[in-house]
From TrEMBL:
TM segment ranges: 72-96, 108-128, 137-160, 186-205, 217-237, 257-284, 305-329, 335-354, 366-388, 394-412
Pfam family, one: K_trans_C
Keyword Flavoprotein on entry: no
Compartment(s) of residence: Cell membrane; Membrane
GO molecular function terms noted in the UniProt entry: potassium ion transmembrane transporter activity
Function text: Potassium transporter.
Protein name: Potassium transporter
Domain K+ potassium transporter integral membrane stretches: 1-434
Gene: BnaC01g15360D
Domain K+ potassium transporter C-terminal: 446-704
Superkingdom as given in the UniProt entry: Eukaryota
Membrane topology field: Multi-pass membrane protein
GO biological process: potassium ion transport
């Protein structure tokens, strides 16, 4: 815990935080969308990090050049990620089921009835996930503190009552005695002993909600002493009541305190399950952001704390799997074996990533990495081998679930990467764009066209494919690229990267919107207004000869970091109106553009059905009456504002992906079946980007990978 908690990514933890750290300090990412300007983000490197200017080691260069090594690293991370999701399935099952096992020991209820009660509690837990925990989160800490104090008190009572000499078990000598007397059976029991330390993986995954110091203090001063007292108490109780082994915990509780402790156990199980479910949502969000998970709906409400999210699809899938495991196994021992294997595998994967962190991120000698893996890896290998022995007794469900989730994540990443490389290969050369002239050889209509693309440079084939079929487009063209940078959060003032494509008369711009892998889209964000203000700021900065370090030289011009904020009074003035969209300035401008009255009526009716759109703030922009050094600047600002007021359309590629005919059978199976199935059954890009359906234009594209 001391070492791993130190490997945080700007305060964030988890298996993907380690991978993001490695991708920032070495070229380990398989997706070639990195830019030099990304490294200028203030949070890209840690404070005082001097490793960015150090020469690469031979080992680091070997991995960067070897595609198979980078693929193996990615698969290792995805295996760890699948284990986190598997733990999210198994933790509620074993926590809730084991917490109410005392009903069997103290009442006449049969085991099937207790399982049904556990299922009812699990359904309630998952059904309430969409409401968040902001109203009850203040109860979590008191519940866990009371639970820990309760089990510690029961442990002390049992020590005093049954066997005070049990304190001798604290001596390391008895570890030797235990293995000497038990032999292979003692080694096999390590798979069960491992359950005493489970939960640390969830703590590391939720490191961003706390601090490493607070976690270390709570573990060393509260959690660990209470657990030691409880387990010593159970050992003292079993030394005199060995026949009560199956239900030793509840049998060791004094009768007057049984029901209070049972209620505390149920509440603590719900809190622990909630924490692991939240960690599951978080790891899926990180996977999706870094291109390793299909598009899912991510909900974050303004009243929730920073970082708290809800993913409906994952919630219901995990609930179904949890209920299936609970009903199928019935016995918590088999679930415990599966749970222990998942936790040990995740810990083992984390241990194998740490030497890379030590060498590439902390810039320590490779000798320290070798010593780390030899010491901790050897210890964990003993536990891991013992956990593998439990596969026939329930551990197989862990292998099945992890294989399922690993295949999903890798297939999606493989298909997305191949599609990106295909887009990059088919992008339009700038020479062909410049040869068409300012009009691009088409008819230009009033309005602004936002062309969404995954490419951070160049003109996507979607644009030319659209012009080939319909030789008309909007007077202002903006190529929008939403990309994820391998850092947790990107400051709002550094999120927009604006550039120009071609000469100024072309009125073509590029906007790269950068987000961290834990950033979430907040409801109410007005993307169009921020985009217009950012482009206006870029136009002004360009006229003033902007030449900062936050630039990215490319064939289509210079990209500059534009601080997107609400203070753009030096460029544009704006007025706010709370009127409905149907009666707003945009609709009025549309009327002057000779649009069909029928279309206007249909559009007004459609937008009235969307309260978020019809009641949102509408900004009207006008260039301020200031003296510009270059008259072309004011003219360009007027063109930008008029285009925005006239119409804003969103152009998104709608691709059909297939493998090439000469591809091997495995590739055709992965692309044509698995990847195509995931694409058809996940959220569409337009939904993920919050694009109004009335303003959406889809361009069909065929991809042969």
């Amino acid at each position: 815990m001391v070492f791993v908690l130190s490997a945080d990514d700007n305060g964030e933890g988890g298996i993907f935080a380690l991978y993001a750290l490695l991708c920032r300090h070495a070229r380990f990412s398989l997706l070639p969308n990195q830019q030099a300007a990304d490294e200028e983000i203030s949070t890209y490197y840690g404070s005082g990090d001097a490793t960015r200017n150090l020469p690469s080691s031979a080992f680091k260069s070997l991995i960067e050049r070897n595609k198979r090594s980078k693929t193996a690293l990615l698969i290792l991370v995805l295996v760890g990620t699948s284990m986190v999701i598997t733990i999210g399935v198994l933790t509620p099952a074993i926590s809730v089921s084991s917490s109410i096992d005392g009903l069997v020991a103290k009442t006449s209820l049969n085991h099937s009835t207790v399982v049904m009660i556990a299922c009812a509690l699990l359904v309630g837990l998952f059904v309430l996930q969409h409401r968040g925990t902001n109203k009850v989160a203040f109860l979590f800490a008191p519940i866990m503190i009371l639970w820990l104090l309760s089990i510690a008190t029961v442990g002390v009572y049992n020590i005093v009552t049954w066997n005070p000499s049990v304190y001798k078990a604290l001596s390391p000598y008895y570890i030797y005695v235990f293995f000497r007397d038990t032999g292979v059976d003692g080694w096999l029991s390590l798979g069960g002993i491992l359950l005493c330390i489970t939960g640390t993986e969830a703590i590391f995954a939720e490191l961003g909600q706390f601090t490493a110091t607070s976690i270390r203090f709570a573990f060393c001063c509260v959690v660990y002493p209470c657990l030691v007292l409880q387990y010593m108490g159970q050992a003292a109780f079993l030394s005199k009541n060995f026949s009560a082994l199956p239900t030793s915990f509840y049998d060791s509780i004094p009768d007057p305190f049984f029901w209070p402790v049972l209620m505390m156990a149920m509440l603590a199980a719900m809190v622990a399950s909630q924490a692991v479910i939240f960690a599951t949502f978080s790891i899926v969000k990180q996977c999706y952001a870094l291109g390793c998970f299909p598009r899912v709906k991510i909900v974050h409400k303004p009243r929730w704390v920073l970082g708290q999210i809800y993913i409906p699809e994952i919630n219901w899938v995990v609930m179904i799997l949890t209920l299936t495991v609970t009903i199928f196994f019935q016995d918590t021992r088999h679930i415990a074996f599966a749970f222990g294997l998942a936790c040990m595998t995740l810990a083992f994967v984390t241990t194998w990533l740490m030497p890379l962190i030590i060498n590439f991120v902390w810039n320590r000698n490779i000798v320290f990495s070798v010593l780390f893996i030899l010491f901790f890896g050897t210890i964990e290998l003993v536990f891991f081998a013992s956990a593998l022995a439990k596969i026939p007794k329930g551990g197989w469900i862990t292998l099945l679930l992890s294989l399922f989730f690993t295949c999903i994540t890798y297939v999606w990443h493989y298909g997305s990467r191949k599609k990106y490389l295909c887009d990059q290969h088919n992008k339009v050369p700038m020479k062909s764009i410049l040869s068409l002239g300012p009009s691009l050889g088409i008819i230009k209509v009033p309005g602004m066209g936002l062309i969404y693309t995954e490419l951070a440079s160049g003109v996507p084939a979607t644009f030319t494919h659209f012009l080939t079929n319909l030789p008309a487009f909007y007077q202002v063209v903006v190529f929008v690229c939403c990309k994820t940078v391998p850092i947790p959060y990107v400051p709002q003032k550094e999120r927009y990267l604006i550039g120009r494509i071609g000469p100024k008369t072309y009125r073509m711009y590029r906007c790269i919107i950068r987000a961290g892998y834990k950033d979430v889209n907040k409801d109410g964000d007005d993307f169009e207004d921020e985009l217009v203000m950012s482009i206006a700021e870029f136009i002004q900065l360009e006229s003033e000869g902007y030449g900062g370090s936050n630039t990215d030289r490319s064939i289509d011009g210079r990209l500059a970091v534009v601080k997107a904020s609400n203070k753009f009074g030096t460029r544009l003035s704006r007025s706010i109106s709370e009127a409905n969209i149907a009666g707003s300035s945009r609709s009025q401008t549309t009327v002057t553009n000779s649009k069909s009255p029928v279309l206007l009526r249909l559009r007004a009716e459609y937008e009235q059905e969307l309260p978020r759109l019809s009641m949102r703030r509408m900004f009207q922009f006008r260039p301020m009456d200031t003296n510009f050094r270059q008259p072309q600047v004011k003219e360009e600002l007027f063109d930008l504002v008029n285009a925005k007021d006239a119409e804003v359309a969103y152009i998104v590629g709608h691709g059909h992906v297939k493998a090439k005919r000469n591809s091997v059978f495995v590739k055709r199976l992965v692309v044509n079946v698995a990847y195509s199935f995931l694409r058809k059954n996940c959220r569409s890009p337009a939904v993920m980007l919050n694009i109004p359906h009335i303003c959406l234009i889809k361009v069909g594209m065929n991809y042969y990978l």
